[in-house]
Amino acid sequence: MSSFEDQYFDDPVEDSRGPVKKKLSSALAFLLLLVGGSYLIQTTFAANIGLNSGRPVEFGQGILTTTACSGSTNLSVTPNSTFVNSAGAGAFYFSSVRVSNIPSSCNGSDFTINAYGESSSTPLALFDSTSTSAVAYNNNGTFELGVGTLTGASISSGSGTFTITFTNPVALSSSVFKLTIQSSLHTESGSTGIAWTSRSSAANISWNSVTYGNGTFVAVAGSGTGNRVMTSPDGITWTSRASAADNTWYSVTYGNGLFVAVANSGVGNRVMTSPDGITWTSRTSAADNSWFSVTYGNGTFVAVAASGTGNRVMTSTNGITWTSRTSAADNDWYSVTYGNGTFVAVAISGTGNRVMTSPDGITWTSRTSAADIGWYSVTYGNGTFVAVSYTGTGNRVMTSPNGITWTSRTSVADNQWLSVTYGNGLFVAVSNTGVGNRVMTSPDGITWTARTSAADNAWYSVTYGNGTFVAVSYSGTGNRVMTSTP
Fold it and tell me: For residues 353 and 369, what is the distance between their CA atoms, to the nearest angstrom?
């Protein structure tokens, strides 16, 4: 088999390919197809792209190209192979593809990757036997799986880069001669967040919070003995994990390569951290307050509490060492989120000041909520902050473009809405009350539609990751998790 250096190039450019990786037994030539069928490959690096001349480029080579959304910025596309052993032989399969150097101009776009054989115009199946497209959604700089790739693959997201890995790759490397990458406007799934399926939690205990990070869903509980954490790669199959202590863990988040959970009980150990969701270490909170929520943004972890005097906020740059901060008021702060350069917290108590905002998690300013009701959860997505409440009449949702000015919205029912999240172009909220309507969804936070939860459990938290919404509950028998995936 020929090496990369054996290829013919017309005036090749030095050092544009990046480091050459270990050569594999199969090769790949690249045809970089762009939106609308136009070829925007720049002449400065066109010499480094093989166009199926019969001497294909090997897997592991980084190839530079542009797409419509990237303008003059060169993206690097790197396919990789995995050897799968079998009786008598074995084979290399096209197992993953990495795209990097993606500019912010591509925010909101889908990237669709296909592979082709030597001459056929029909794309090869890449995974799940028949799936021919790998789609990554650029959700404002965070890369998620897109429609058509929500099962059978996983994605890792970094700054301006993503890697899609096929769970069970089916395209032989020796069969792949061309790759295409296309950018287009994001396509939302028609069923994610709408249809829900019951799943078995690792134990029937009070699951209070769930998050997603580094390819793993992690949930924490307020009850149980030695099993107050559970993890899952897909939201379906869950495994019990031991928390650092049997505290009442109320919230968990992920940031900077670390899972961080906070509790409203415990002595000197109301924080715990984990690099993988499996092994947890106790950390000392800034005070033994009733910590109800933690988030990550702008290089900082921020937690808020429902108790304490002048110290109902704490911050940490590493999740390990925490510093007390003064909240805008000593309200019962139940939720905090980060978006658009601003931390926003909401409370279930206070008069005319049940919202506070901060640019850094340190200095906080009181804001007026749309109503003085029990604001239990807040999230950010698609340029909008959305909060939900467990009290109120016809006004249990409020929205804000900046966290400062809030507007009342009508929820689908006056249920006790305890959690809201955003993903796949959709806001999803869950409740612990209601009959057949404990989920509601909205594309904009303003107009909401009732959805049927998998069971009328006390749903306490919902998150989104890897193309899947996952909710957890503190009631139910063998069904304290539900998921929504196309």
Answer: 6
Burial (0-12, 13-18, 19+ Cβ within 10 Å), 225: exposed
pTM of the model: 0.69
Q: Write down the residue that tokens 């009181």 correspond to.
A: 366
Domain 197-484 has CATH 3.20.20.210: no
Q: In what order do the strands lie in the sheet with 75-86?
A: 63-65, 75-86, 89-100, 161-166, 153-158
Name the pairing type of β-strands 417-423 and 426-431: antiparallel
Average confidence (pLDDT) per 10 residues, the chain, 486 residues = 29 32 33 31 26 48 71 86 79 91 90 86 90 88 79 86 92 85 78 86 97 95 97 95 98 97 97 98 98 97 97 98 98 97 98 97 98 98 96 97 98 97 93 95 94 96 93 96 87
Boundaries of every domain in the chain: 4-185, 197-484
- Beta-carbon contacts of 205 under 8 Å, excluding residues fewer than 6 positions away, are 221, 222, 223, 224, 227, 228, 474, 480
CA-to-CA distance for 49 and 38, rounded, in angstroms?
A: 16
Helix, strand or coil, per DSSP, at residue 23: coil
